[in-house]
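Hi C.,

You asked whether I'd gotten around to modeling the 294-residue construct. I have! Everything is below, sequence then structure, no commentary in between.
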Amino acid sequence: MSNDSRPDDQYTRTWAGGRGEVRFFTRSDGSRLRYLVAGTGRPLVLLHTVRGQLDYFQRVIPLLWDHYTVYALDLPGMGWSDIVPGARYEEPQLRAALVEFVTGLDLRDVTLAGESLGAALSLTASIDLEDRTSRIVAFNSYDYPEGGMRGNGIARAVMTAVRAPVLGAIAGRMEPRNILRDILRGGYVDTSKLPEHFVDELSRSGRRHDYWRVSRAIFRSLESFDRARERYGRISTPVTLVYSENDWSKPHERERVAKALRNVEVITLARTGHFSALEDPATMGRILLTPASA
């Protein structure tokens, strides 16, 4: 297991401006999750996208830390969280990590918010955290087939190769920085909104020993998030469901999610792609700061 003595905050310091602190949360199995805590107020837990890390929210967190105590988390194995040999990265395992994080820090009256995979986790984990969660804000929830493969031709080719039973182990080891950038661009309307320095950071964390195993396991487990959608009918916490106009999800998939939820407000972001935290951070911040409709 990767177990550095202190959490990596080299990149996070460049945008956090001295606010907050990067820490590790130690799980019951001894593995650790890197997270940033910043600000004051009621707790807000932010959960990143597939192939992401907490720095994905670098343009949103400064808009929130005067109103919330923000906890931005690197999901298991991702970013700079510990890599555990043989670990699984399907929805139940990632959900269990989030539940353990919230209960381990004894957070209450929590707003769970995330984008993409992080949005789906916010929804499913809220059932296990019902007595601790006051609101869910789910941006572009990743709970449908194919997902990122719809981004562009490069994304489809690479994800298909990485998910392959045998050749995927070879393809998973190869992630040139420019290919990673081109894949990510498939989630933007305005590709200039993807920070080059963020791509550099993702490439840096992706060079960790055995990170390719984590990345491949996640891409091969995405169907588990589609299956987890069956849990949505049990969610009692108020939900703000946000979809970008140009998200990868299709209109009928968005409607299916909204109909599955009991207490839901639906918002659409104009002229925005799948990665709204970087493409339209002001609107994401405004939604998170606006109380849910009664």
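If it helps when you're writing up: The mean pLDDT is 93.

Thanks,
B.
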